[in-house]
């Protein structure tokens, strides 16, 4: 079946199984590997992307659900890594192995889009589904707040 | 189907260096003590000089005529920040401008010295060796400038990417000197800079791979894309040592995109680095492979471990520590000491199997052309990968190239190259490049597990409450069981919290009780220190409770006065001491005491009951580093116990990258809390019960402490380990805090077995 994905602003016409999780369509067929596989069961958040601006776990999202819709991956969050979250992440040296961080940032980006100045509790609730085995949680909390403050100033 | 273009590790692998390697006689792979890179490599130097490519005095440094400096990182990056740390040692010695330094990841090759990134070795094992590599290049650049200026080299200095003759105010950039320097002899006597001249070492350094990690361009094992590459997933025997006795591939082959179903050979014990065998499904993409695997029909024979039940095995271990074992440490007369004691304190501790659960499951890509094999892998151990692939394919090691990607976590799992061999076997079987992708279920169910352990501790107290005798029995299937048929531990594991614990107690005996493995046992971040520190540091707090004394004072009393603890005092003949000499790295109780005193001061120990909190304390030396931790717990609104705040105070000697040291210790707190609170792998009929993060629970953001304070106690002694030593004291500090809060003593991990957490 033909599926059209608008990924980071570019159309991709794919002839693939409509049941294929969006994750594998992005990684294996679109060639964007910034979105990670961590569990395949909606348990870790490594695969979070935006579907029409909403954070979704691409590992349990059949690609058919994304047909004709706008998908944003970590590669498309900003043209040059300059999203306030990306900047805060680098400034605070949040990543350790880095593997979970695309999912963390995409989840946080969806939060900030809705709630530009989240409380600690808002951050904890939004990111509760994103595991970090390296244990960077406290820096993630700080970085989201720093990005929120920076985002506020930019407006 | 669209295929992305080939894209290989752009940042990490720079063409050109590989050329310098061809033709070198390569030493054989040695696992044990770290071998050090030679600061001088004549073959590489000659090659570089001949082609005018600039100065390449050894395999690690390349100064190009344009002034770019390439520095090789030969150890694997898995979150510990090694790529942001080791190259800095070389660059700082050289006097390079960090902005012009490019880090190149080395392939697996014994010429780089030991590359197995484990044991918290990278800085402590290579500190001086790496500095010499940079110093050698600096001396040659200075010599080239001095010759041009007709001045004595001693009157010149190198800094800011240039050589300067201060007396005349002349300067030449590294790039301008590179070709001339390459023609000069390599100095034999390499002089290091005085430490004060190192501008970056020991400071907060930027995270080299940070930008790539936040924009999606960082390349991990599964991200390597090669034209024509297929993806494989493997149905492995549920029980280690089991095998497929029959399989029907028909339905799997009918799944669109599935190209082949390939049976893999079953391993023979000892399992070592062999793949587990099973049936592979090779397909055009991951989804097709997964769908194909779900359609496989396989009959498994469980093999020798099909009876293993981890709940039953607890009884086996308990029985083992009820009987004398092999005496591994002895001072005084424990039997008499206990017999004469006014009272005894006794406790038994149990720590279950754990899984590594690296955020990135194992993955590897291999390409085989009939003569040579090239692999890309998320591996801590590129040399073992190379050797294992060569052996599996019947090739000479020179015909196997192993590229190292970034690792999405390692923790010891990725020191074993079983999955790399799987990719190589499948590339040979199918004639196409193959990526092997482990699912999370594969990862949790087919790990090299952290062992399971039971320990029994008995202390004898005299009438005044002073501890006069200490007996420690430990039983656990050793890591050695993965490599040979043994149930007794090597000193490598016993030094981790049994042989090396300073005890100001006149009668001490430790015994290792035999325990047989029924799973693949591997090393997990901080290894045997996890369970030994848990038992010993919990037990000292139990003694405090029995006597009604302050746990901190009790700990200081048992650690004893500041001193260098000799082998004789320990009651052992030798101590591996993490591969380093006791002269350079003695067991120094002044350093134990300093971290205990500092951490309790920071946590306001004397007011430990304030605001409804309770504190627990533990100290442990591992990988030569001294760490004391205080954990604060509170009752949460939901009736659960909550970890509110943690202080971790460390003395790791000389540091390279202060910022990454802090981040390692922050991460270690979360890693250890996860295990202590929830971590448990159980097995029934030889198969792992847990399968994903649903049942192998890890700490999540809302459960994380409100604050983690990491404090570095300054010390300019030789560098010690960083990646692992933050882990061991956390679990006992937590158990001690929970005791202080609830009066309940947790001796069985995880805590979730007995309490609401
Ligand atoms: S991979 Fe999708 S939530 Fe884990
Ligand atoms: S940084 Fe390694 S899993 Fe989060």
UniProtKB/TrEMBL annotation, chain A:
Pfam families: Fer2 (PF00111), Fer2_2 (PF01799). SUPFAM superfamilies: 2Fe-2S ferredoxin-like, CO dehydrogenase ISP C-domain like. Residues 1-77 form the 2Fe-2S ferredoxin-type domain. Keywords: 2Fe-2S, Iron, Iron-sulfur, Metal-binding, Oxidoreductase. CDD domains: fer2. Signal peptide: none annotated. The keyword Disulfide bond does not apply. GO terms for molecular function: 2 iron, 2 sulfur cluster binding; metal ion binding; oxidoreductase activity. InterPro entries: 2Fe-2S-bd, 2Fe-2S-bd_dom_sf, 2Fe-2S_ferredoxin-like_sf, 2Fe-2S_ferredoxin-type, 2Fe2S_fd_BS, Beta-grasp_dom_sf, Diverse_Oxidoreductases. PANTHER family: BLR6218 PROTEIN, OXIDOREDUCTASE WITH IRON-SULFUR SUBUNIT. This is Isoquinoline 1-oxidoreductase, alpha subunit. The lineage of its organism: Bacteria, Pseudomonadati, Myxococcota, Polyangia, Nannocystales.
UniProtKB/TrEMBL annotation, chain B:
InterPro entries: Ald_Oxase/Xan_DH_a/b, Ald_Oxase/Xan_DH_a/b_sf, AldOxase/xan_DH_MoCoBD1, AldOxase/xan_DH_MoCoBD2, AldOxase/xan_DH_Mopterin-bd_sf, N-heterocyclic_Hydroxylase, OxRdtase_Mopterin-bd_su_IorB, TAT_signal. Residues 215-304 form the Aldehyde oxidase/xanthine dehydrogenase a/b hammerhead domain. SMART domains: Ald_Xan_dh_C. Gene3D superfamilies: Aldehyde oxidase/xanthine dehydrogenase, a/b hammerhead, Aldehyde oxidase/xanthine dehydrogenase, molybdopterin binding domain. GO terms for molecular function: oxidoreductase activity. This is Isoquinoline 1-oxidoreductase, beta subunit.
């Amino acid at each position: 079946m033909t599926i059209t994905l608008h990924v980071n602003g570019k159309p991709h016409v794919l002839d693939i199984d409509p049941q294929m999780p969006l994750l594998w369509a992005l990684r294996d067929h679109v060639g964007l590997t910034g979105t990670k596989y961590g569990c395949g069961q909606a348990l870790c958040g490594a695969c979070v992307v935006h579907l029409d601006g909403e954070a979704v776990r691409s590992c349990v999202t059949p690609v058919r659900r994304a047909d004709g819709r706008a998908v944003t991956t970590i590669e498309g969050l900003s043209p040059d890594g300059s999203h306030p979250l990306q900047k805060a992440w680098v400034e605070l040296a949040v990543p350790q192995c880095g593997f979970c961080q695309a999912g963390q940032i995409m989840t946080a980006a969806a939060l900030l889009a809705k709630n530009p100045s989240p409380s600690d509790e808002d951050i904890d609730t939004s990111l509760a589904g994103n595991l970090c085995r390296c244990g960077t949680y406290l820096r993630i909390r700080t970085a989201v707040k720093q990005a929120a403050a920076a985002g506020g100033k930019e407006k | 189907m669209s295929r992305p273009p080939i894209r290989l590790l752009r940042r990490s692998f720079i063409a050109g260096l590989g050329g310098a390697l061809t033709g070198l006689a390569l030493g054989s792979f040695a696992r044990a003590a770290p071998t050090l890179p030679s600061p001088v490599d004549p073959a590489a130097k000659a090659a570089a000089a001949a082609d005018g490519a600039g100065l390449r005095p050894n395999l690690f440094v390349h100064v190009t005529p344009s002034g770019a400096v390439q520095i090789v990182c030969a150890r694997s990056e898995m979150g510990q920040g090694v790529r942001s740390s080791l190259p800095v040692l070389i660059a700082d010695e050289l006097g390079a401008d960090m902005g012009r330094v490019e880090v190149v990841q080395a392939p697996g090759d014994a010429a780089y010295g030991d590359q197995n990134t484990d044991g918290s070795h990278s800085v402590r094992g290579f500190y001086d060796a790496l500095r010499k590599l940079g110093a050698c290049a600096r001396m040659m650049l200075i010599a080239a400038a001095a010759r041009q200026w007709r001045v004595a080299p001693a009157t010149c200095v190198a800094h800011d990417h240039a050589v300067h003759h201060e007396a005349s105010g002349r300067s030449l950039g590294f790039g301008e000197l590179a070709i001339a320097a390459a023609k000069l002899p390599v100095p034999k006597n390499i002089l290091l800079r005085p430490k004060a001249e190192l501008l970056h070492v020991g400071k907060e350094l930027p995270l080299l791979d940070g930008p790539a990690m936040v924009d999606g361009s960082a390349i991990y094992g599964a991200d390597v894309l090669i034209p024509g590459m297929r993806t494989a997933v493997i149905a492995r025997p549920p029980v280690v040592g089991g095998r497929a006795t029959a399989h029907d591939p028909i339905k799997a082959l009918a799944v669109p995109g599935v190209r082949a179903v390939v049976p893999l050979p079953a391993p023979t014990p000892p399992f070592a680095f062999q793949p587990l065998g099973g049936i592979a499904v090779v397909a055009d993409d991951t989804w097709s492979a997964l769908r194909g695997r779900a359609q496989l029909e396989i009959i498994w024979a469980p093999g020798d471990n099909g009876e293993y039940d981890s709940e039953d095995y607890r009884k086996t271990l308990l029985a083992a520590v009820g009987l004398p074992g092999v005496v591994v440490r002895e001072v005084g007369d424990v039997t008499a000491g206990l017999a004469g004691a006014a009272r005894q304190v006794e406790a038994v501790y149990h720590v279950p199997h754990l899984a590594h659960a690296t955020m990135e499951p194992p993955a590897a890509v291999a390409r085989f052309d009939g003569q040579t094999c090239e692999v890309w892998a998320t591996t801590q151990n590129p040399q073992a990968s190379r050797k294992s692939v060569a052996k599996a394919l019947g090739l000479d090691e020179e015909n196997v190239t192993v590229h190292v990607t970034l690792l999405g976590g390692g923790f010891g799992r990725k020191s074993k190259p079983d999955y790399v061999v799987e990719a190589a076997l499948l590339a040979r079987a199918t004639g196409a490049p193959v990526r092997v992708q482990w699912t999370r279920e594969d990862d949790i169910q087919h790990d090299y597990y952290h062992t399971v352990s039971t320990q029994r501790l008995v202390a004898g107290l005299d009438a005044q409450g002073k501890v006069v005798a200490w007996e420690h029995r430990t039983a656990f299937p050793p890591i050695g069981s993965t490599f040979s048929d043994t149930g007794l531990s090597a000193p490598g594991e016993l030094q981790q919290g049994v042989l090396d614990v300073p005890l100001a107690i006149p009668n001490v005996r430790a015994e290792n009780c035999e325990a047989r493995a029924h799973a693949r046992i591997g090393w997990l971040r901080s290894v045997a220190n996890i369970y030994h520190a848990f038992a010993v540091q919990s037990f000292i707090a139990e003694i405090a409770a029995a006597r009604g004394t302050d746990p901190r004072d009790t700990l200081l009393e048992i650690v004893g006065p500041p001193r260098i603890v000799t082998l004789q005092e320990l009651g052992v003949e030798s101590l591996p001491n993490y591969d380093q000499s006791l002269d350079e790295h003695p067991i120094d109780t002044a350093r134990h005491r300093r971290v205990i005193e500092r951490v309790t001061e920071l946590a306001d120990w004397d007011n430990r009951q304030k605001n409804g909190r309770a504190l627990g304390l533990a100290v442990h030396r591992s990988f030569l580093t001294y760490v004391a931790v205080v954990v604060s717990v509170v009752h949460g609104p939901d009736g659960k116990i909550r970890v509110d705040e943690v202080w971790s105070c460390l003395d790791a000697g000389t540091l390279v990258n202060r910022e990454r040291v802090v981040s390692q210790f922050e991460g270690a707190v979360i890693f250890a809390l996860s295990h202590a609170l929830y971590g448990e792998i159980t097995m029934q009929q030889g198969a792992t019960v847990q399968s994903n993060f649903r049942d192998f629970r890890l700490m999540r953001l809302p459960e994380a402490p409100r604050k983690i304070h990491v404090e570095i106690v300054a010390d300019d002694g030789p560098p010690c380990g960083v990646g692992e030593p933050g882990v061991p004291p956390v679990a006992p500090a937590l158990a001690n805090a929970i005791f202080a809060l609830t009066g309940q003593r947790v001796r069985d991990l995880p805590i979730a077995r007995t309490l609401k957490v």
